[in-house]
Amino acid sequence: MKHLDVAAIKDGSVIDHIGSKSTLKVADILNIQNEEQVVLVGMNLTSKFLGKKGIIKIEGKIIDQKEANKIALIAPNATVNIIKDYEVVKKFKTVIPEMIEGMVKCFNPNCVSNHNNIKTKQHVVNKNPIRLQCHYCERIMSANDIVLI
Amino acid sequence: MVSFQQRDIISIRHFNKEEILYILDLAKRMEQMDHTEILKGKVLASLFFEPSTRTRLSFESSMKRLGGMVIGFAESGVSSAAKGESLSDSVKIVEGYCDIIVLRHYLEGSAQLAADVVKVPVINAGDGANQHPTQTFLDLYTIQKTKGTLEGLTIGFLGDLKYGRTVHSLAYALAYFGAEMYFISPPSLRLPGDFMEALKDRKVKCHENESLMGISKRLDVIYCTRIQKERFADPIEFEKVRGIYRLSKTMLEDVGIKDNLKVLHPLPRVDEMDDSLDATDFAVYFHQARNGVPMRKAILAAVLGAIA
């Protein structure tokens, strides 16, 4: 029998193949601190593709594609497995959306979004490598400029 | 079919080549048109949170010359912004008093924010170091009038390329017309990397230089800009680059130029252009400033649906 580093869940969602260092940020975006049922978080697990990976298992919560896409920016290789009675019944990858809202701080200190109480918005102008253009000030951020809110 | 009716004019990036040529053509028609009252009964709100002479007055003149009326303010100290009112709230209030808003603000992206929260059209009259699309339209109009074409020109941008919004907007627009571009500035005022990358993505031939030496004879147009003291957080940094370029008749003759070179400047100038240049055939900057009126008349009339 295969040994599991992080225990199985009966019904819910497993987010796998998260870059290890992004695991807690993913947990934050998915707001798991407000979950009532079991949540298991693993970091620095061995991965053939990533070297080290993170995994999050949430009992009793079904994550849909839209919600999964929120984490695509920081976990572009993540997969979501929907579990029912210990079996995987659905599996999908995260997809970077066309527009990122309320997640990334604009890197331009003079951008109106850093001085007014408004939701930040960036258009995804390139997915690989990632390049985001601020909806307001039009400046283009690359991966090194991206700071999550 | 091209239409500007009820459109926000926020960034030159929102306009394609056909639309740019359409508005240039409309400005030409406006120059030939006699007194008209096609905007009678319309009200323009002119909201200037930052100082301006040319842009504000040419918008107001254009509106009045077309029979319209103007309300507004010329500095943020006399608006409710001084009491801490947010930009969103300010424009939502003003929306109820006018048919169109012209906005200048020191924060980048402010015009887009305003356009997102009001229903009346918003024209960006400069948002920080970002965009100044109506200046770009009139710059293009001036180049087209004085050079006879916009296609395939070699343009030298000189001065503050980091904070100069007119440079950012004009370079973007000229990329539609196959321009080759020389960006001439001190290292600390170079064109921001993301702008340069965006131009290269559009296959523009770009060069970066620190002086006109060796390249001046290739230029059809020099677009000179002021080094903007107000954009520097550190006055010492400003002092390092202050007065670094000074175009004069003698200087241009010394470095060597094309006979039909044209020198543009969005004005105001401080010390980067000598008065000796004013009387030469190169100088078209005062003509350029005057072109603000036909261009802004064209924009106002087109956006308010008074002309097609």
CATH fold-level assignment of the largest domain in chain A: Alpha-Beta Plaits
CATH class of the largest domain in chain B: Alpha Beta
Strands ordered across the widest β-sheet of chain B: 7-6-5-8-9
Number of domains of chain A: 2
Supply the number of helical segments of chain B. Answer: 11
Question: In the residues of chain B, how many domains can be counted?
Answer: 2
Q: In what order do the strands lie side by side in the largest sheet of chain A?
A: 2-3-1-4-5
Number of helices of chain A: 2
The name CATH uses for the topology of the largest domain in chain B is Rossmann fold
Overall geometry of chain A = elongated
Mean pLDDT of chain A, as a whole number? 91
Low-confidence parts of chain A = none
- N-to-C CA distance of chain A: 42 Å
Return the structural class of chain B.
alpha/beta
Helix-strand string of chain B = HEHEHEHEHEHEHEEHHEHH
- Low-confidence parts of chain B lasting 5 or more residues at pLDDT below 50? none
What does this entry show, briefly?
Chain A is mostly beta strands and 149 residues long. Chain A is 8% helix and 41% strand. The longest helix of chain A has 7 residues, at 23-29.
